[in-house]
Amino acid sequence: MPRRTLALIVGLVLAGAVQVVPATAAVRQTAECQGDWLPATPTSEQVMAGEVQFLDLPPVKIGKRIDWNRSPYGNRSWDMVFSSLRWVGRLVADYETSGKEAYLSRATELIKSWVESNPRRGSRASRYAWQEHPIALRAPVLVCLSRHVKASWLTASMVDHGRELADPAKYEKGHNHGLDQDIALLRLGCRSGHKEWADLAIRRMTGTIRLDVDSQGALQEQAPRYGIYVYERLKVGMESIKDCGRKVPADIAKRWESLENYITHATQPNGFMVPIGDGAADVRPAGFDHPKQTVKVFKAGYVFGRTKWDDPEASYYSIRFGPGQKFHGHEDHLGVTYFAQGRDILVEAGFHSYERTGYRYWTMSPEAHNVPVVAGKPFRNRTPTSLVASNIKPDRQSYKLTDKAYGVPRYRSVLVDHDNPLMAVLDTAPGAQVRGYWHLDPALTPVSTASGRVVVKDKTGWKATVLQLSMPGCKPVTGQSVVRARTNPYQGWISPSYMRKVPASVIVSPAAKSLLTLTVPGTGDADVTCTASRVTVKTGDTTTSFRYSASGTLA
After folding, report:
1. What's the DSSP call for residue 420?
2. Where are the alpha helices (DSSP H) in 289-401?
3. Would 179 be classed as within a structural domain?
4. How many helices (H) does the chain have, and how many strands (E)?
5. Within a domain: residue 301?
6. 174 CA to centre of own chain
7. What is the phi-psi region of residue 243: left when phi exceeds 0, alpha when psi lies from -120 to 50, beta otherwise?
8. How is the beta sheet containing 316-320 ordered, strand by strand?
9. How far does the signal peptide extend, from start to end residue (predicted)?
10. CA separation for the pair 536, 546 (Å, rounded)
11. Mean pLDDT across the stretch 436-452?
């Protein structure tokens, strides 16, 4: 036995009765330590240097002796990830692939320190030590370490984690946290021989996926980017079932495959997912095949449409409806986004963070989305919205939606034309007045605002026009305002990525009985005329027209 290996074993035994399985010339790689379950950062080199980095925040020096209660940024997500110990699992995985015993030694030291500092149900435990999600993310790290280290404290902690995960009071059914709990309990059950834990985990996983992913493949958590997370974690779950010598239930495999359809439809022509709900604008799916269908209505509350696939210049739009807000959703019902000619035009405020701040709560509010607000009426959160009509043709699609989020019916009709690109939106609330919010991409700057018309352009000189007309009568709206970077109350911001916000222009219309908003890409001089039942838009040599009815329908 090499002298350095003997010294390592002696040192660990003296430190805490730890038996390390001696490393051979090639360390055996294990299913519990390899795979897609570990984060890419921090790297093992960073951890060995006493440094960790999470969530794109600056690196933090943690030193040799760890303070498990530290919270360098006062950031809930950072604190949770720190307590999850997944970053320590990276050391063990890299030990298996590199044979570097120092990685295993440090991983053992860190995990033992955590176990001693955070007794189950002990007053000394850190804030996130025994919360349901950190438990689920940490348990596989313990299982991985147990493949190379035998110690009573490690075995006891695995039992503690198993008991917590099996507790029905802590189970997050129908949610991505529940899936993580299932994977963790399955790994613990299979590794420790607790068959009842493994059986419970597979039963739960099957039930959770039936709730979280519907028959169309749509995730029920109201943020498309979590579709990627569930897709990737469900893959880990299925691999864990196979590693345990079990057969993957057909429902799990079927729902996993169906998620691809949802993820691809929710991806814009520029390759980034449309940032709906708690989904940042910088999420870029990779490796997913797309269907032939270019327009898809998901009963979970989404319409996704595009002119064609594999063309970054294609037009694309999204519309929100469906069940009331829950999980990672925002109060975005009736909201639309619009992408055309290779550019974002109408966007949403997006996802900033999970910190409990005024800005976070504003990003979740109706005013942070492209929605109609009923003037003078209080908003009723978690109100469902119905899609009551749709007409889908290759070159044009129209929809009508309604709800009572303000105590009275509000209606929104949306028409998207692809031959001569435009989006038309008609908002009404019988017996009341509506006000519209239209959030423009930060790359667009208003160059003129007059007579209900806002013309914007980007740095290349490309232009788009947003026109607002009071209906019936086709009268230009007066009294529009363009708000930018306001803080009291918040308005005029976009979050392009985690913990970032940048100024962006928002068009706020005055209240009107019936408000028609036209977004016309590629021009600053669109000309609009109306008759009693038809609206015509001329841009250069092209003309587009659509029908308008007094009942609030576009076609």
Report:
1. T
2. 358-364
3. no
4. 12, 30
5. yes
6. 16
7. alpha
8. 295-298, 302-306, 316-320, 336-340, 343-346
9. 1-25
10. 7
11. 95
- Work out whether the CA dihedral 87, 133, 12, 64 comes out positive or negative: positive
Contact 214, 221 (CB under 8 A): no
* pLDDT single digits (tens) 501-535: 999 999 999 999 999 999 999 999 999 998 888 99
Query: How many other CB atoms are there within 10 angstroms of residue 299's CB atom?
Result: 13
Q: Which of 149, 158, 159, 27 is nearest to 95 (CA)?
A: 27
pLDDT in tens, 103-149: 999 999 999 999 999 999 878 888 899 999 999 999 999 999 999 99
pLDDT in tens, 357-386: 999 999 999 999 999 999 999 999 999 999
CB-count exposure of residue 532 (10 Å: 0-12, 13-18, 19+):
exposed
Torsion sign across C-alpha atoms 49, 54, 58, 64? negative
Q: Kindly state the greatest CA–CA separation across the chain.
A: 92
C-alpha 172/C-alpha 45 separation (Å) is: 35
Average pLDDT of the chain to the nearest whole number: 92
Using an 8 Å Cβ cutoff, are 205 and 213 in contact? no
| Predicted local distance difference test score (pLDDT) of residue 26 | 65
Domain end: 97, 129, 161, which one? 129
* CA–CA gap between residue 85 and residue 111 (Å, rounded): 8
Got the DSSP string for 66-106? --TT--TT--HHHHHHHHH-HHHHHHHHHHHHH--HHHHHH
Provide the CB-side half-sphere exposure for 48 (13 A, CA): 14
In this predicted model, what pLDDT tens digit does every residue of 449-503 receive, in sequence order? Answer: 988 899 999 999 999 999 999 988 889 998 899 999 999 999 999 999 999 999 9
In this prediction, residue 353 has a pLDDT band, given cuts at 50, 70 and 90, of very high
Query: What is the domain extent for residue 38?
Result: 28-129
Contact between 201 and 140 (Cβ < 8 Å)? no
The total number of structural domains that make up the chain: 2
497 vs 353: CA distance, rounded Å: 9
Looking at the domain assignment, is residue 191 inside a domain?
A: no
The span from the CA of 418 to the CA of 421, in Å, is: 5
- Establish if 125 belongs to a structural domain: yes
Residues in Cβ contact with 301 at an 8 Å cutoff, skipping those fewer than 6 apart = 222, 320, 321, 322, 323, 333, 385
**To the nearest whole percent, how much of the chain has pLDDT over 70?**
95
* Bridge partner residues of 306 (DSSP): 316
Q: Which residues of 36-45 are buried (b: 16+ CB within 10 A; e: fewer)?
A: ebbeeebebe
Tokens of 329: 């959703």
- The SS3 assignment for 132 reads helix
Nearest to 375 by CA among 427, 452, 319, 440: 427
Phi, psi of 61 (to 5 degrees): -80, 125
Last-in-domain residue among 96, 113, 129:
129
Question: Residue for token digits 């950062």?
Answer: 41
Partners of 517 in the β-ladder: 425, 468
